[in-house]
Predict the structure.
Amino acid sequence: MSGAEFRAFQARRPDHERWELLGGVAMMMTPPTIAHNQIASNLERLLNAALARHAPSLLATQRPGLDLGEGDYKPEPDVGIIEADYDAGQRFVDKAYLLAEVVSDTDEVIVPGTDRRWIDVKRDLYRSHPHCAVVLVVAQDHMEVELDLRTEASRTSSILQGGDAELSVPAFSLRCRVADLYERTPLQPRARG
């Protein structure tokens, strides 16, 4: 299936269904876990708080429809930073400045025709997107964040492990502990008093 055929197919599907195009094959994504959703919500909240103070023309949102142009891949990021100015019925953007994935079981699927996991292909797609300065890959079963930062001068990749590790994204004025992404999940439950 081509990218255009996939978008036409996707337009006929109910809004609650999640589909991605993996190497020309349409794949329905299983519903995310509650922990997955909570991690994505926490990241979105933390990013929007930072953006409100330092870059109000941008917006962090969950599941932005990302159109990377033609091709055999149409991922749906869990969280992205996009322009805050968008149309009421708009579903897709062609520019995202930060893209994040909370790793789920479907991300471990081997992409048809390759020997690569879907999460690895998505990470490479996001890193090659010319507007994307930050890529986050967040584990959901342990406290770990893979962080890719791109500036005009360099690209760095690091792995942040453990709740006390600091997640710093200067481009969007985000600074928090990795544990903050896991608030109200089984890894960082709410204190009961």
User: Anything to note?
Assistant: The chain has a mean pLDDT of 93. The chain has three helices and twelve strands. The first strand starts at residue 19 and ends at 22. The helical segments are 3-11, 34-54, 118-128.
